[in-house]
Amino acid sequence: MFRCKMSISTLILLVTLQGATVMLLSGWYFQLSPCASVPSNGKVQVLLLSSWRSGSSFLGQVFSQHPSVFYLMEPGWHVWSQLPKVNIRMLRVAVRDIFRSIYQCDFSGIEAFLPENHNVSDVFMWSHSRALCSPPACSLTPRGEMSDQPECLKKCVTKGLQGAKNACDTYTHVVLKSVRFFELESLYPLLQDPNLNIRIVHLVRDPRAVARSREQSANAFVTDDAIILENRRMPAAEVLYQVMQEICRSHVRISERATLKAPPFLKGRYKMVRFEDLVRDPLREISGIYKFVGLDMTKQLGQWIYQVTHGKGTGTKKDAFTITSRDAADVSQAWRSTLPHHKVKRVQEVCRGGHDVVGIQDCEQ
Protein backbone atom coordinates (compact mmCIF):
# COMPACT_ATOMS: atom_id res chain seq x y z
CA MET A 1 0.00 0.00 0.00
CA PHE A 2 1.24 3.52 -0.80
CA ARG A 3 1.95 5.56 2.33
CA CYS A 4 2.72 9.26 2.41
CA LYS A 5 5.22 10.52 4.97
CA MET A 6 4.97 14.05 6.31
CA SER A 7 6.62 16.04 9.05
CA ILE A 8 4.90 16.61 12.38
CA SER A 9 4.78 20.37 11.70
CA THR A 10 3.01 19.73 8.38
CA LEU A 11 0.60 17.37 10.09
CA ILE A 12 -0.39 19.88 12.76
CA LEU A 13 -0.84 22.58 10.10
CA LEU A 14 -3.17 20.32 8.11
CA VAL A 15 -5.14 19.39 11.22
CA THR A 16 -5.48 23.06 12.16
CA LEU A 17 -6.65 24.02 8.66
CA GLN A 18 -9.13 21.16 8.73
CA GLY A 19 -10.47 22.38 12.06
CA ALA A 20 -10.83 25.93 10.78
CA THR A 21 -12.71 24.70 7.71
CA VAL A 22 -15.08 22.64 9.84
CA MET A 23 -15.71 25.62 12.13
CA LEU A 24 -16.54 27.81 9.12
CA LEU A 25 -18.85 25.23 7.57
CA SER A 26 -20.58 24.51 10.87
CA GLY A 27 -21.12 28.24 11.32
CA TRP A 28 -22.83 28.42 7.92
CA TYR A 29 -24.93 25.38 8.76
CA PHE A 30 -26.23 26.82 11.99
CA GLN A 31 -27.02 30.17 10.45
CA LEU A 32 -29.32 28.28 8.10
CA SER A 33 -30.52 25.72 10.65
CA PRO A 34 -30.36 27.19 14.17
CA CYS A 35 -32.03 24.28 15.95
CA ALA A 36 -29.72 21.29 16.37
CA SER A 37 -31.37 17.88 16.09
CA VAL A 38 -30.46 14.57 17.70
CA PRO A 39 -28.45 12.36 15.30
CA SER A 40 -30.48 9.58 13.71
CA ASN A 41 -28.11 6.86 14.98
CA GLY A 42 -29.14 7.58 18.59
CA LYS A 43 -25.56 7.60 19.90
CA VAL A 44 -24.61 9.87 22.79
CA GLN A 45 -21.09 11.29 23.02
CA VAL A 46 -19.77 12.25 26.46
CA LEU A 47 -16.74 14.39 27.23
CA LEU A 48 -15.36 13.84 30.72
CA LEU A 49 -13.60 17.15 31.20
CA SER A 50 -11.27 17.60 34.16
CA SER A 51 -7.68 18.35 35.20
CA TRP A 52 -4.83 16.11 36.28
CA ARG A 53 -5.17 14.36 39.69
CA SER A 54 -8.82 15.31 40.15
CA GLY A 55 -10.36 11.84 40.29
CA SER A 56 -11.02 11.62 36.56
CA SER A 57 -9.41 8.17 36.26
CA PHE A 58 -11.96 6.86 38.76
CA LEU A 59 -14.91 8.58 37.10
CA GLY A 60 -13.61 7.40 33.75
CA GLN A 61 -13.79 3.82 35.00
CA VAL A 62 -17.33 4.45 36.24
CA PHE A 63 -18.17 5.09 32.60
CA SER A 64 -15.86 2.43 31.14
CA GLN A 65 -17.33 -0.42 33.18
CA HIS A 66 -20.87 0.37 32.02
CA PRO A 67 -22.03 -2.22 29.45
CA SER A 68 -23.38 0.49 27.11
CA VAL A 69 -20.17 2.54 26.94
CA PHE A 70 -17.17 2.61 24.63
CA TYR A 71 -14.52 4.54 26.60
CA LEU A 72 -11.04 5.85 25.86
CA MET A 73 -8.80 7.48 28.44
CA GLU A 74 -6.96 10.56 27.17
CA PRO A 75 -6.68 10.20 23.38
CA GLY A 76 -5.28 13.74 23.46
CA TRP A 77 -2.15 12.45 25.19
CA HIS A 78 -0.80 11.38 21.80
CA VAL A 79 -0.95 14.93 20.47
CA TRP A 80 0.64 16.56 23.50
CA SER A 81 3.39 13.95 23.83
CA GLN A 82 4.46 14.28 20.18
CA LEU A 83 4.06 18.04 19.79
CA PRO A 84 5.37 19.50 23.07
CA LYS A 85 6.69 22.69 21.42
CA VAL A 86 3.51 23.56 19.52
CA ASN A 87 1.31 26.43 20.71
CA ILE A 88 -1.30 25.16 23.18
CA ARG A 89 -4.16 26.72 21.19
CA MET A 90 -3.15 24.73 18.11
CA LEU A 91 -2.93 21.59 20.22
CA ARG A 92 -6.54 22.08 21.33
CA VAL A 93 -7.68 22.14 17.72
CA ALA A 94 -5.78 18.93 16.95
CA VAL A 95 -7.11 17.17 20.06
CA ARG A 96 -10.66 18.36 19.40
CA ASP A 97 -10.63 17.05 15.84
CA ILE A 98 -9.33 13.66 16.97
CA PHE A 99 -12.19 13.57 19.47
CA ARG A 100 -14.68 14.43 16.73
CA SER A 101 -13.45 11.46 14.69
CA ILE A 102 -13.45 8.98 17.58
CA TYR A 103 -16.94 10.08 18.61
CA GLN A 104 -18.01 8.80 15.18
CA CYS A 105 -15.94 5.61 15.59
CA ASP A 106 -13.35 6.83 13.09
CA PHE A 107 -9.80 6.20 14.32
CA SER A 108 -7.91 7.60 11.35
CA GLY A 109 -7.10 10.84 13.20
CA ILE A 110 -5.41 9.18 16.15
CA GLU A 111 -3.64 6.71 13.83
CA ALA A 112 -1.64 9.64 12.43
CA PHE A 113 0.05 9.87 15.85
CA LEU A 114 0.73 6.12 16.19
CA PRO A 115 3.63 4.04 14.80
CA GLU A 116 3.20 2.96 11.18
CA ASN A 117 2.61 -0.71 12.03
CA HIS A 118 0.59 -0.09 15.16
CA ASN A 119 -1.31 -2.34 17.53
CA VAL A 120 -4.17 -1.42 19.81
CA SER A 121 -1.54 -1.47 22.58
CA ASP A 122 -0.06 1.71 21.08
CA VAL A 123 -3.18 3.62 22.15
CA PHE A 124 -2.57 5.38 25.47
CA MET A 125 -4.02 3.43 28.43
CA TRP A 126 -5.98 1.19 26.04
CA SER A 127 -6.36 -1.64 28.56
CA HIS A 128 -8.34 0.67 30.85
CA SER A 129 -11.18 0.48 28.33
CA ARG A 130 -13.52 -2.41 29.13
CA ALA A 131 -14.85 -2.18 25.56
CA LEU A 132 -11.39 -3.05 24.17
CA CYS A 133 -11.26 -6.07 26.50
CA SER A 134 -14.72 -7.33 25.40
CA PRO A 135 -16.23 -8.71 22.17
CA PRO A 136 -15.95 -7.86 19.36
CA ALA A 137 -12.55 -6.29 20.18
CA CYS A 138 -11.42 -9.16 22.44
CA SER A 139 -13.07 -12.30 23.82
CA LEU A 140 -11.60 -11.94 27.34
CA THR A 141 -14.42 -10.11 29.17
CA PRO A 142 -18.07 -10.95 28.35
CA ARG A 143 -20.25 -7.90 27.75
CA GLY A 144 -21.84 -6.82 31.02
CA GLU A 145 -19.01 -8.06 33.26
CA MET A 146 -16.32 -5.99 34.97
CA SER A 147 -13.02 -6.03 33.10
CA ASP A 148 -9.68 -7.11 34.55
CA GLN A 149 -7.13 -4.55 33.35
CA PRO A 150 -3.94 -6.59 34.00
CA GLU A 151 -5.41 -9.60 32.19
CA CYS A 152 -6.59 -7.43 29.31
CA LEU A 153 -3.09 -5.99 29.01
CA LYS A 154 -1.72 -9.50 28.50
CA LYS A 155 -4.40 -11.09 26.33
CA CYS A 156 -6.13 -8.43 24.21
CA VAL A 157 -3.32 -6.97 22.09
CA THR A 158 -4.52 -6.91 18.47
CA LYS A 159 -3.08 -5.62 15.20
CA GLY A 160 -4.37 -2.24 14.04
CA LEU A 161 -7.50 -0.46 15.26
CA GLN A 162 -10.17 -2.24 13.22
CA GLY A 163 -11.22 -4.14 16.34
CA ALA A 164 -11.62 -0.85 18.19
CA LYS A 165 -13.80 0.52 15.40
CA ASN A 166 -15.92 -2.62 15.29
CA ALA A 167 -16.41 -2.41 19.04
CA CYS A 168 -17.19 1.31 19.03
CA ASP A 169 -19.93 0.80 16.44
CA THR A 170 -21.83 -1.52 18.80
CA TYR A 171 -22.20 0.88 21.75
CA THR A 172 -24.82 3.57 22.38
CA HIS A 173 -22.42 5.84 24.27
CA VAL A 174 -18.88 6.93 23.38
CA VAL A 175 -17.07 8.51 26.34
CA LEU A 176 -13.70 10.25 26.08
CA LYS A 177 -11.73 11.72 28.98
CA SER A 178 -9.57 14.82 28.64
CA VAL A 179 -7.54 17.03 30.96
CA ARG A 180 -6.29 19.08 28.00
CA PHE A 181 -9.06 21.62 27.41
CA PHE A 182 -8.87 24.84 29.41
CA GLU A 183 -11.96 26.54 28.01
CA LEU A 184 -15.17 25.58 26.22
CA GLU A 185 -14.95 27.76 23.14
CA SER A 186 -12.67 25.37 21.26
CA LEU A 187 -15.31 22.67 21.78
CA TYR A 188 -18.14 24.64 20.19
CA PRO A 189 -17.76 22.92 16.79
CA LEU A 190 -18.43 19.58 18.51
CA LEU A 191 -21.48 20.91 20.31
CA GLN A 192 -22.79 22.39 17.06
CA ASP A 193 -22.08 19.33 14.90
CA PRO A 194 -25.43 17.84 13.78
CA ASN A 195 -23.83 14.37 13.74
CA LEU A 196 -23.02 14.50 17.46
CA ASN A 197 -25.10 14.56 20.64
CA ILE A 198 -22.52 15.81 23.13
CA ARG A 199 -22.79 15.89 26.92
CA ILE A 200 -20.04 17.46 29.04
CA VAL A 201 -19.33 16.21 32.56
CA HIS A 202 -16.96 18.69 34.23
CA LEU A 203 -15.17 17.17 37.22
CA VAL A 204 -13.50 19.57 39.67
CA ARG A 205 -11.62 18.94 42.90
CA ASP A 206 -10.30 20.94 45.84
CA PRO A 207 -7.07 22.48 44.44
CA ARG A 208 -5.21 21.77 47.67
CA ALA A 209 -5.87 18.06 47.17
CA VAL A 210 -4.87 18.35 43.50
CA ALA A 211 -1.61 20.09 44.45
CA ARG A 212 -0.77 17.43 47.02
CA SER A 213 -1.43 14.64 44.51
CA ARG A 214 0.51 16.36 41.70
CA GLU A 215 3.46 16.90 44.02
CA GLN A 216 3.61 13.16 44.74
CA SER A 217 3.82 12.35 41.01
CA ALA A 218 5.66 15.45 39.81
CA ASN A 219 7.94 13.66 37.33
CA ALA A 220 4.93 12.42 35.38
CA PHE A 221 3.83 15.97 34.58
CA VAL A 222 7.03 17.63 33.36
CA THR A 223 6.00 17.73 29.67
CA ASP A 224 2.40 18.69 30.39
CA ASP A 225 3.44 21.44 32.81
CA ALA A 226 5.77 22.94 30.21
CA ILE A 227 2.94 23.04 27.65
CA ILE A 228 0.50 24.59 30.13
CA LEU A 229 3.03 27.29 31.03
CA GLU A 230 3.97 27.74 27.34
CA ASN A 231 7.59 26.81 28.14
CA ARG A 232 8.12 29.91 30.28
CA ARG A 233 11.24 29.80 32.42
CA MET A 234 10.76 29.95 36.18
CA PRO A 235 12.22 28.47 39.38
CA ALA A 236 11.36 24.79 39.77
CA ALA A 237 9.66 25.46 43.10
CA GLU A 238 7.26 27.87 41.40
CA VAL A 239 6.04 25.51 38.65
CA LEU A 240 3.42 23.73 40.79
CA TYR A 241 1.77 26.99 41.85
CA GLN A 242 1.73 28.51 38.38
CA VAL A 243 0.20 25.34 36.95
CA MET A 244 -2.39 25.30 39.73
CA GLN A 245 -3.26 28.90 38.95
CA GLU A 246 -3.88 28.02 35.29
CA ILE A 247 -5.98 25.00 36.26
CA CYS A 248 -8.11 27.01 38.69
CA ARG A 249 -8.62 29.77 36.15
CA SER A 250 -9.71 27.20 33.58
CA HIS A 251 -12.35 25.78 35.92
CA VAL A 252 -13.72 29.28 36.46
CA ARG A 253 -13.78 30.02 32.72
CA ILE A 254 -15.52 26.76 31.90
CA SER A 255 -18.07 27.07 34.70
CA GLU A 256 -18.95 30.69 33.92
CA ARG A 257 -19.26 30.02 30.20
CA ALA A 258 -21.51 27.02 30.78
CA THR A 259 -23.74 28.51 33.47
CA LEU A 260 -23.71 32.31 33.15
CA LYS A 261 -22.97 32.91 29.47
CA ALA A 262 -24.10 29.69 27.82
CA PRO A 263 -24.91 29.85 24.10
CA PRO A 264 -28.18 28.10 23.14
CA PHE A 265 -26.45 24.96 21.87
CA LEU A 266 -24.76 24.38 25.25
CA LYS A 267 -27.85 24.56 27.46
CA GLY A 268 -28.75 21.25 29.03
CA ARG A 269 -25.49 19.66 27.93
CA TYR A 270 -23.21 20.57 30.83
CA LYS A 271 -22.98 19.15 34.34
CA MET A 272 -20.40 20.04 36.97
CA VAL A 273 -19.42 17.37 39.49
CA ARG A 274 -17.33 18.00 42.61
CA PHE A 275 -15.01 15.15 43.53
CA GLU A 276 -15.71 15.71 47.22
CA ASP A 277 -19.45 15.22 46.61
CA LEU A 278 -18.72 12.18 44.46
CA VAL A 279 -16.82 10.34 47.19
CA ARG A 280 -19.16 11.46 49.98
CA ASP A 281 -22.13 9.69 48.40
CA PRO A 282 -20.84 7.75 45.36
CA LEU A 283 -23.96 5.83 44.37
CA ARG A 284 -26.22 8.87 44.54
CA GLU A 285 -23.85 11.12 42.60
CA ILE A 286 -22.99 8.53 39.96
CA SER A 287 -26.65 7.68 39.46
CA GLY A 288 -27.22 11.39 38.77
CA ILE A 289 -24.35 11.47 36.27
CA TYR A 290 -25.65 8.37 34.51
CA LYS A 291 -29.12 9.90 34.28
CA PHE A 292 -27.67 13.10 32.80
CA VAL A 293 -26.05 11.19 29.93
CA GLY A 294 -28.85 8.66 29.46
CA LEU A 295 -27.44 5.60 31.22
CA ASP A 296 -28.99 3.36 33.89
CA MET A 297 -27.32 2.13 37.06
CA THR A 298 -27.07 -1.66 37.27
CA LYS A 299 -26.82 -3.84 40.37
CA GLN A 300 -23.39 -5.11 39.35
CA LEU A 301 -22.10 -1.57 38.77
CA GLY A 302 -23.47 -0.45 42.13
CA GLN A 303 -21.59 -3.26 43.87
CA TRP A 304 -18.37 -2.45 42.02
CA ILE A 305 -18.64 1.27 42.86
CA TYR A 306 -19.15 0.44 46.54
CA GLN A 307 -16.13 -1.87 46.58
CA VAL A 308 -13.70 0.59 44.99
CA THR A 309 -14.81 3.51 47.21
CA HIS A 310 -14.98 1.67 50.55
CA GLY A 311 -11.57 0.05 50.78
CA LYS A 312 -8.85 0.81 53.30
CA GLY A 313 -6.25 3.56 53.16
CA THR A 314 -5.52 6.16 50.50
CA GLY A 315 -3.35 4.10 48.16
CA THR A 316 0.39 4.19 47.47
CA LYS A 317 2.48 6.19 44.99
CA LYS A 318 2.53 3.24 42.59
CA ASP A 319 -1.28 3.31 42.61
CA ALA A 320 -1.37 6.94 41.44
CA PHE A 321 -2.64 6.10 37.95
CA THR A 322 -4.60 2.92 38.67
CA ILE A 323 -8.01 2.23 40.18
CA THR A 324 -7.76 0.19 43.37
CA SER A 325 -10.07 -0.27 46.35
CA ARG A 326 -9.49 2.68 48.69
CA ASP A 327 -11.33 4.74 51.28
CA ALA A 328 -12.42 7.44 48.85
CA ALA A 329 -13.50 9.88 51.56
CA ASP A 330 -10.07 9.63 53.21
CA VAL A 331 -8.38 10.12 49.83
CA SER A 332 -10.28 13.37 49.28
CA GLN A 333 -9.09 14.80 52.61
CA ALA A 334 -5.54 13.39 52.72
CA TRP A 335 -4.05 16.79 51.85
CA ARG A 336 -5.01 18.10 55.32
CA SER A 337 -2.40 15.91 57.02
CA THR A 338 0.24 15.72 54.28
CA LEU A 339 0.47 19.14 52.58
CA PRO A 340 2.53 21.64 54.63
CA HIS A 341 0.60 24.71 55.73
CA HIS A 342 2.76 27.16 53.77
CA LYS A 343 1.93 25.24 50.60
CA VAL A 344 -1.76 25.16 51.52
CA LYS A 345 -1.73 28.96 51.86
CA ARG A 346 0.05 29.44 48.56
CA VAL A 347 -2.39 27.23 46.65
CA GLN A 348 -5.27 29.12 48.25
CA GLU A 349 -3.74 32.39 47.10
CA VAL A 350 -3.19 31.39 43.45
CA CYS A 351 -6.63 29.75 43.27
CA ARG A 352 -8.50 32.52 45.07
CA GLY A 353 -10.91 33.18 42.21
CA GLY A 354 -11.90 29.54 41.93
CA HIS A 355 -13.00 28.87 45.49
CA ASP A 356 -16.71 29.27 44.76
CA VAL A 357 -16.50 27.01 41.71
CA VAL A 358 -14.91 24.09 43.56
CA GLY A 359 -16.85 24.81 46.77
CA ILE A 360 -14.05 25.25 49.32
CA GLN A 361 -13.19 27.57 52.17
CA ASP A 362 -9.72 28.75 53.15
CA CYS A 363 -7.91 26.71 55.76
CA GLU A 364 -6.15 29.10 58.13
CA GLN A 365 -4.55 26.59 60.46
UniProtKB/TrEMBL annotation:
GO terms under biological process: N-acetylglucosamine metabolic process; sulfur compound metabolic process
A Pfam entry, by short name: Sulfotransfer_1
GO cellular component: Golgi membrane
Keyword Chloroplast: no
Residue span(s) of domain Sulfotransferase: 45-352
EC category: transferase
Subcellular location per the Swiss-Prot or TrEMBL entry: Golgi apparatus membrane
Keywords noted in UniProt: Carbohydrate metabolism, Glycoprotein, Golgi apparatus, Membrane, Signal-anchor, Transferase, Transmembrane, Transmembrane helix
Topology relative to the membrane: Single-pass type II membrane protein
Keyword Transmembrane helix in annotation: yes
The protein's Enzyme Commission number: 2.8.2.-
GO molecular function annotation: N-acetylglucosamine 6-O-sulfotransferase activity
Family affiliation: Belongs to the sulfotransferase 1 family. Gal/GlcNAc/GalNAc subfamily.
Protein name, per record: Sulfotransferase
Organism: Takifugu rubripes
